[in-house]
Aminoglycoside phosphotransferase domain-containing protein
Amino acid sequence: MEDLSHYDNGQPSGFSFNDSMICLKHLALFHIWNWNNPIPKGGAKLWNIGGYWTGDKEANKNDIRKAWDLTVQNFHNELQISELSKNFGSVLESRLNDITFAFNNLQPRTIIHGDYKIANIFINRNSTENQIYAIDWQWCGIGHAAMDVAAFIATSIHENTIENSLELVRFSYKILIDNGISYSWEQFWQAYQICWIE
C-alpha cells in the first residue's frame, strides 16, 4: 500500500468547502459504478447494509433518549436547546422503528464506503485532479449514496462550511445527474434527510 502520510486529510479542523466538494465529487463517481446494481465483483463480501452504525451492527439504539437527555443536561447553554427540543430524544426513540424501516428501504442502492469521514480520506494535492485516497473499507456494503454523503457532512467539514451543507448535498446530486443517473432531487433530498437522522 502506498504511504499516504504526506497527503492532506483536513484534520484537525475539518475540510474546507472546496476540499469537501473534491471529496464529494470522487465519492459520487464511486457510487455511480454500481448504481442500482450493487453486486460485489470477484466474490467480495460486503455488509448487507453498509456503515458502522447501521443494521445489526448498531448496538446503542436503545440508548437514544438517554444520550439526548445527557446532551441537554451537559450542553444546554452551548447548544441553545429550546424548551420544545428538550424532549427530542423521546420523540426520536418513539419513531425509531419507522426511521429504521425507511432507512433500510431507501432506493436505489449502490456500493457505499460506509465510513467516509475525514480520518479516512486523503487528498493528493500534487495531482492535477486532486486525487482522493479513501482508506478503512471495513464497513463497505450496500446502501443508498446519501448514506456516505450524510456521514461525510456530519463528521468531516470545517465549522465554517456547515452553513453550506445544503449546497454540498446539491453538488453531490449534480455529479450523479451530470454522469447519467436519472434520479429526482426530491428523492435524493428525502433520502439524505433519512440518512442524517439514522
User: Anything to note?
Assistant: The longest helix spans residues 17-33. The longest strand covers residues 121-124.
